[in-house]
Amino acid sequence: MKKVLFFTFIMAFSASLSAQTVPGINTSDVKKSGMDAVSKENPNMDAQIKDALMKDEGLQKETIDYLKSNPETTKSLTNIAAENKGSNQGIMKAILGDKDLASAAIDFISKNPELLSKAMKVIGM
Q1: Could you tell me which of 59, 89, 99, 94 has the C-alpha nearest to residue 77?
Q2: Labelling 6: which of 22, 33, 61, 66 has CA 20 to 30 A away?
Q3: Lowest mean pLDDT among 64-68, 80-84, 96-100
Q4: How far apart (Å, rounded) are the C-alpha atoms in residues 38 and 34?
C-alpha cells in the first residue's frame, strides 16, 4: 500500500511540473532593455547622440526622414529645410539648435536600439 501511495505521489508531482510553462525570452526585449540600461548609465548620452548626428550622414538621413513623417515636427522641419536648401549638415545643425526638434531627434535615436548602436559606433563606443 505504501508503494502505491508513493508511486501516486511521484506521478502527481511529475504531472504538476510538466504542466508549468517557462516564459520565453524575446531577443528584441533584451536588446531594448540593454540600450535603456546604457542610456541610464551614461548621463552624457544626449551629447554623444548629437555628436554622432553631426558625423554620420546615414543617421542624419534617418532622423530627418523621421522628423518629416512626425506630425508634431513636420512644419518646423519644412521651414528649416527651406532655409538650408537641402544640405543635410545644415539641416542637422538647425535641428540640434532647436530645443524641441533636438529632443525629438534624440528620443528617436535613443529609443531605437539599432540606431543607438550605430550612433555609439560612430563616436567610438
Answers
A1: 94
A2: 22
A3: 80-84
A4: 6
Mean pLDDT of 13-40: 59
Cα(46)–Cα(2) distance, integer angstroms: 69
How far is 78 from 100, CA to CA, in rounded Å? 14
Q: How far apart are CA 48 and CA 117, in angstroms?
A: 12
Model confidence, pTM: 0.62
